[in-house]
Amino acid sequence: MQHLGFTYLIKNVSVAIGIVLIWRGVWVALDLIDRWLFGGDHIITAILGIVAGLLILYLPENNLKALERL
After folding, report:
1. Is residue 40 a contact partner of residue 34, using CB atoms and an 8 Å limit?
2. How far apart are CA 29 and CA 27, in angstroms?
3. In the prediction, which pLDDT does 3 show?
4. How far apart are the C-alpha atoms of 19 and 16, rounded to whole Å?
5. Alpha-helix residue ranges (DSSP H) falling in 1-70
6. Structural domain count of the chain
7. CA 65, CA 38: separation in Å to the nearest integer?
8. Which domain does 64 fall in, by range?
9. Does residue 66 or residue 3 have the better pLDDT?
10. Which listed site, 18, 25, 42, 61, has its alpha carbon 20 to 30 Å from 36?
11. Do 49 and 31 belong together in one domain?
12. Three-state SS for 67?
């Protein structure tokens, strides 16, 4: 029974680490694009990121009910 718990823990920790590494890669890539396209002006990319995020949340169901869960 303890072996099953340890395996479950290792599997979940591995998934969490994988997700963190993916987000780190995305974050770094977006910072490089920000520097390349906008000269590192974070205001422009922050506003564009907010707009893109809202569109991604809005478009599938044509509402922003996903934000109500926050």
Report:
1. yes
2. 5
3. 64
4. 5
5. 2-38, 42-58
6. 2
7. 32
8. 40-70
9. 66
10. 18
11. no
12. helix
Shared-domain flag, residues 52 and 25:
no
Statement to judge: residues 2 and 33 lie in one domain: yes
Place of tokens 């987000």: 23
Q: CA 54 to CA 70: how far, in whole Å? A: 14
pLDDT for the residue numbered 18: 94
Whether residues 33 and 60 fall in one domain: no
Q: Which residues contact 30 (CB under 8 A, 6 or more apart)?
A: 45, 49
**Same domain, yes or no: 30 and 47:** no
Residue type, 39: G
pLDDT tens digit string along 6-58?
A: 888 899 999 999 999 999 999 999 889 889 988 888 888 889 889 998 898 88
Structure tokens at 69: 């869960």
30 and 6 belong to one structural domain: yes
Tokens 């591995």: give the residue: 14
pLDDT at 17: 95
